Amino acid sequence: MVIPIGEATVGDGVLLQMHPLDYTLLFIYFAFVLGIGWMVKRSIRSSEDFFQAGRSIPAWIAGLAFISANLGAIEILGFAANGAQYGWASVHYYWVGAIPAMVFLGVVMMPFYYGSNIKSVPEYLRRRYNNSTHVVNASSFALSAVLIAGVNLYSLAIVLRALLGWSLPLAITVSAVLVLAYILAGGLTGAIYNEVLQFFVIIAGLIPLTIVAIAAVGGPGEAIERLKDYPEYWYHPWSGTSIDAAAVDPQTANPIGDWVGIILGQAFVLSFGYWTTNFAEVQRAMSAKNLNSARRAPIIGAFPKIFIPFIVILPGIAAAMLIPELGTGDDPSTTYTNAIPLLMGDLLPVGVLGVAVTGLVAAFMAGMAANVSSFNTVMTYDIWQQYIAKAKPDRYYLNVGRTLTVLGVVAGIGTAFIAANYNNINEYLQTLFSFFQAPVFITFILGMFWKRTTPWGGFYGLVSGILGAGAVWVYAVAVDPEFFRSPFQQAMWMGIVAGAVDLVVTVAVSMRTTPLPDSALVGLVQGLEVKDESDSASTVWFKKPEILGVAAIVLALSMYLLFVFI
Amino acid sequence: MSEPRTPDTPVPATQPPERRARLLDLRFVISLMFAIFGILVTIAGLTAPPDQIERAAGINISLWTGLAMLALSAGMGLWLVLAPPDVPEGHVVDESDLEGGTSGQPPAAP
Predict the structure, then answer these.
(1) Is residue A1 part of a domain?
(2) Does the model's pTM come out above 0.90?
(3) pLDDT score recorded for residue A61
(4) Residue A435: C-alpha distances to residues A10, A273, A459, A462 (Å)
(5) Among positive and negative, which fits the CA dihedral A232, A237, A242, A245?
(6) Subunit contact B90:A56, Cβ cutoff 8 A
(7) Do the domain assignments include residue A4?
(8) Within a domain: A249
(9) I need a surface site. Which of A11, A83, A322, A419 has the fewest CB within 10 A?
(10) Model ipTM?
(11) How many domains does chain A have?
(12) Which residues of A touch B101 (CB under 8 A)?
């Protein structure tokens, strides 16, 4: 998903009336953020402590951090905007587009990540394939993490300036220094502990906002009645998803896409790629204290994820009903992205407003910190230790990691400023990184489940998949701009093509090249897994990832039944 | 884990290790912050002038949010009491931390 950035995107023209009490809440939160960094500082003794949280985090903390790392403010504002523009249609990104992938990570893939003792997701590719595959993945991940961290920081600064009237340099300094402080002091543990706190603050801000917004529409019954004034996909998210819907009637065609794109492109290739191979996410689960906890972490995160649409998409829908001018005209204060800030300003009283603002600020910091803490790990272990300075004492890598943390934040600020001043550069960069991400899942899944996959099969498959995604993009931009009904549908089909090309090329090259011997694949491939005693047949049923995972998927899919009654 | 750690700030010797471990538990931090948030926002709700309630569609949302945050705080606190952090939770509360902290001397690397 491309993240909007620019002077007039978020929050413009929505200056909030903050009472001293609201500011007090924000500053108390800042104090706790720093306090957590200080609290875990003394536990950082080795690079393993700093980059991997000492592989010691309990499952519930890793699980909530897993979901919080994804619950950045750009996600919140973005899905509220989708709600205001398309109603419930974008709920697919949660119920089919996230939950199955999170469960798959826990049930199927985590044993390979955790059991093989790797420190990062790119490291899996180095050990399973070769250095070439590794460099492509590690460097594109590191670059995109810096960009996304910078975008989060810059967007936070813009929001603070617009909502609270802070100057841009002040807002950037305050937020960058806070995030830097707790990551430098506490490493991944500092980031994860803060993410859990952020999770609760975000929820505490969004639930009251949603309740008040629905009440302002006239209550749930009235809100459901008024949904029927909108196109059907607003309240029946599968309507208008036939392949030819856009050709038959553009008015009723589901803007999110067609059912093949939603299921095969989004729910399978793209969502599995994001949730199971994006290191900013997977790192949280890999920090858990044993294999069973690591496997349960993403599934524990899946349960709150099922309900997040009700506090991000729903307020967006309420905003569309309450603020008729939303999304119309040229007034920058009524863009769809402003749905939540506008509701906050219109509806929230003293006290709750402070909680909601704090939640929004926390969400930006979560989105930034997850990328910074995964960036420094990949840069240190995968790039620096592997290709630049091998076999130094542990203390050396700890220092490299801290230095790279500072450089990453500084580079992020720089990238975001440049991107904001040159329209579209940011958008092109994010599109470019999405090419790199699109086929990755296929390369991992073949590596894990088909022992015959060879190092060069993996490399050429991955690179061809990236080019395949690029080809779809070029076609859609340069040859036939009318081909896809929306950027969502285009991204889904980029995923399908990238995955298919990757699959075909990997298999074809693997059949003609030499596979690695079993001895090189221990812990990395099905049949050669390494397990620990925490995850055996005697585990109690409510700690079994398989049982929890099936429950999460059944619950997520049954949520669609709610719409039957509308 | 191969590096000796640097000396930390000494811990007041009056705190028994279990108590210190509890204070360093994330559940305590969450409980404490939401207790403060809950009290402040509940007071804002109790003293809310009519226009503040009217603005939120007639709901005293600050009061409800404040009470809900107090409930979250109590829940986290109760969980901490019922399931104390006896198992080392990270390196935050493990034995060497407590000994090293109390004496002010870095213990030998394990």
Answers:
(1) no
(2) no
(3) 95
(4) 26, 12, 15, 10
(5) positive
(6) yes
(7) no
(8) no
(9) A322
(10) 0.88
(11) 1
(12) 42
pLDDT in tens, A171-209: 888 888 899 999 999 999 999 999 999 999 999 999 999
Q: Cβ(A312)–Cβ(A88) under 8 Å?
A: no
Mutation target vs B (from A29, A50, A64, A355; most B CBs, 10 A cutoff): A355
The alpha carbon of residue A130 is apart from the nearest alpha carbon of chain B, in Å, by 28
Q: Which of B33, B36, B99, B103 to mutate to test the interface with A (most CBs of A within 10 A)?
A: B33
Measured CA to CA, the distance from residue A134 to residue A313 in angstroms comes to: 37
DSSP conformation class of B12: P
- Are B26 and A196 within 8 A, CB to CB? yes
pLDDT by residue (tens digit) across A414-459? 876 776 666 566 667 777 778 888 899 999 999 999 999 999 999 9
CB-CB under 8 Å, A43 with B1 = no
Structural domain including A502 reads: 9-37+56-218+258-564
Give A202→chain B minimum CA distance, Å: 12
- At a CB cut-off of 8 Å and minimum separation 6, what does B86 contact? none
Contact residues on chain A for B29, CB-CB shorter than 8 A = 32, 35-36, 39, 193, 197
Residue of A nearest to B56 (CA): A347
Which uninterrupted H or E stretch holds A161?
A: helix A131-164
CATH number at residue A448: 1.20.1730.10
pLDDT band at B17; cut points 50, 70, 90 = low
**pLDDT the model gives residue A115:** 85
Residue B67 and residue A77 in contact, taking contact as beta carbons nearer than 8 Å: no
- Chain A residues with beta carbon closer than 8 angstroms to that of B72: 200, 204
- Whether residue A327 contacts residue A112, with contact meaning beta carbons closer than 8 Å, is answered with no
Specify whether the CB–CB gap between A349 and B61 falls below 8 A: yes
Q: What are A233-257's pLDDT values in tens digits?
A: 999 999 888 888 888 888 888 888 8
Question: Is A248 within the bounds of a domain?
Answer: no
Which residues in chain A (278-297) have CB-CB distances under 8 A to chain B?
A: 289
